[in-house]
Amino acid sequence: MGPLIQHICLVTFFIFFACSSAPDTNTNLDLPHNEARSHEVDVVLDGKTAHSQLKISHNGKVVEWVTQKGEPQTEIDKNDIDKHFDEDPYVLGSMGRAMRAYWEVCVKENKDWVLGVTSATANRKGQLVLSPDNGFWVVRISNGENLKTFMGDDVLNERIPHRVGIYVDYQERKVTFYNAEDNSLIYSFTNGPSYEDDVRPLFSPWKYEKQPITILSIST
Fold first, then answer.
1. Which of 13, 49, 173, 179 has its CB surrounded by the most CB atoms within 10 Å?
2. What is the DSSP letter of 37?
3. What letters, b where the CB count within 10 A reaches 16 and e where it falls short, cover 92-115?
4. In angstroms, rounded to a whole number, what is the distance separating the alpha carbons of residues 148 and 137?
């Protein structure tokens, strides 16, 4: 065996050894739903951010659209005017500042809804483009079908859930959605927020939807 062949063999051996002994750094694997649920946090709707036609329950766990024109359901204090969504029917939630957070929402009777998280500094005025570039990580459903993200027209290949689990992992920079009934994955954003982004839960039963959406306790 000549010197060149010996050198190639030696280099190949060291490359193989280094690769085979390196620790697994794959962070793209989605956390199993049961493990995500162990990071449950208490989420309460923040009426100071709600669109004026959204009605928030006294316990801050239920939101619904009310159609009476001229009769706002949420009083808008002049000192909070910049906090409200003024055109699209959204409301934010409040939660603690944990590195990992999980909550569940019941959307069983709803044909239209939007769920996810948004940066606390994201725009709340006018018609919104709900993309990660604009500080929104959400999924939506329209007319009881076509579960999608706002990043394209691709329909997510999952059956329509009645309970949705949302999991935020700042360390992995991921926002993951689960079907909380069968523990299956709906979608995972891998370009999620960092801890410095200070995201907040986002909810919408959408306009003219008669059924409320409800934040659940896992024990419910």
1. 49
2. G
3. bbebeeeebbbbbbbbeebbbbbb
4. 12
pLDDT at 86: 84
Run of H or E residues at 14: helix 3-21
Q: What is the pLDDT of residue 57?
A: 94
pLDDT in tens, 56-105: 999 999 999 987 655 555 555 555 567 788 888 999 999 988 899 999 99
Residue 21 CA to residue 12 CA, distance in Å, equals 14
Dihedral of CA atoms 182, 187, 193, 194 in degrees, nearest 10, equals 60
User: At 31, phi and psi to the nearest 5?
Assistant: -65, 135
Nearest to 90 by CA among 50, 47, 148: 50
When pLDDT is cut at 50, 70 and 90, the band that residue 216 belongs to is very high
Q: How far apart are CA 211 and CA 63, in angstroms?
A: 9
**Contacts with 20 (C-beta within 8 Å, 6 or more apart), sequence order:** none
Mean of all residue pLDDT scores within the chain:
80
Q: What pLDDT sits at residue 198? A: 85
By C-alpha distance, which of 59, 37, 92 is closest to 219?
A: 37
Long-range CB contacts (< 8 A, 24+ apart) of 144-149?
Answer: 144/111, 144/112, 147/186, 149/187, 149/189
